[in-house]
Design brief:
Largest sheet: none
Helix content: over 70%
Radius of gyration: 42 Å
Distance between the termini: 114 Å
Structural class: mainly alpha
Number of helices: 1
């Protein structure tokens, strides 16, 4: 403000408004930077979590496959055992040699 009057000139108002706009712009820029930094951190955490979930899912899938493979092998072995036992019983009947269980 001019020291000779109690009124602000147009130039005084422009300077005050420009300073307020500059200050507000700085505050908004700082806030935007903080928000961006925070979101970047959250994205990294999310990426790590997704990688962990994918690794866990792959591990579970591998275990399930192993169990399925074992079940198929066991079923095949049991079926073969039953066929051999039936054959041994027929041989036992024809030869008169008893089977020992």
């Amino acid at each position: 403000m001019s020291s000779s009057t109690n009124f602000a000139t147009k130039k005084d108002v422009e300077i005050i408004v420009q300073k307020a706009v500059d200050d507000l712009s700085d505050v908004i820029a700082q806030f935007a930077f903080q928000v961006d930094t925070r979101f970047a951190s959250l994205e990294k955490s999310n990426d790590r979590m997704e990688a962990n979930i994918n690794r866990l899912t792959n591990t579970i899938d591998a275990f399930v496959k192993r169990l399925d493979d074992m079940e198929i092998e066991n079923t095949s072995r049991d079926s073969q055992h039953q066929r051999l036992l039936a054959w041994a019983e027929r041989v036992s009947t024809k030869t008169g040699i008893p089977l020992e269980y």
